Amino acid sequence: MDSDLHKGHRKRMREKALMTSLRGFSDHEILEFLLFYTIPRRNTNDIAHQLIKRFGSLEGLSKASVDEIAQEKFISRRTAAFIKYFPQINEQLLAADTSEAIQLCDVEIVREFVKGRYKDAPPNCIKMFCLSPSLHLIAEYDLGVGSIEDLVKDPVIFLNKISEANCRGVIFSHTQPDYNFSISKHMREVLLRLSEILLHMDIRYVDHVIICGDCFPFSLQSMNLISELTELSRKLMNSGRWT
Question: Region 202-222: what's the mean pLDDT?
């Protein structure tokens, strides 16, 4: 009976991991998921809790030696080596993936890059650029023609793309028909909701570029608006008050 329960739990965890790319998982849940592949017949939830309790976090665990990790009950040296070196292997793979990619780490670079992507774009075109933790471009998506408000009302489209890209940060962009750049109170509320959605998914809202008129790009991060929205979203989340 216990074996069936553990088997069902592992299946549910794998399905959740595939759907979310581990976003929203706590440290012990991520560790439990990894341990599935080296400890096939034990309750890895208890083992994961035991390891996090001793080493404090995944980061603390990754800094421990193989010998220190192997001292724990039910942890073989093979499992200890897997825990120790898995993050380093992942970092190397990520570095290889992004070595040739553009790094969107500066407002001016972002503005010029996004401006170039709108050269032949139709009016009211919304785009999303997915980034690695080091702000290298992983993928870019055309999210269709419409308004940011419509996109926020039905976020499944861009959330699926974020999951597909397995990114850690995003830049949004959209067009505005005239040169009179301004952020209305209503637009600010829409952008706040977008910020909340991204924060809930543990995705960094890096910037939002608005292309005005023919092709003049305004960066909301250069105005500190993205930072303000992110901070307000965090306060709302911590207080349990979402918009």
Answer: 86
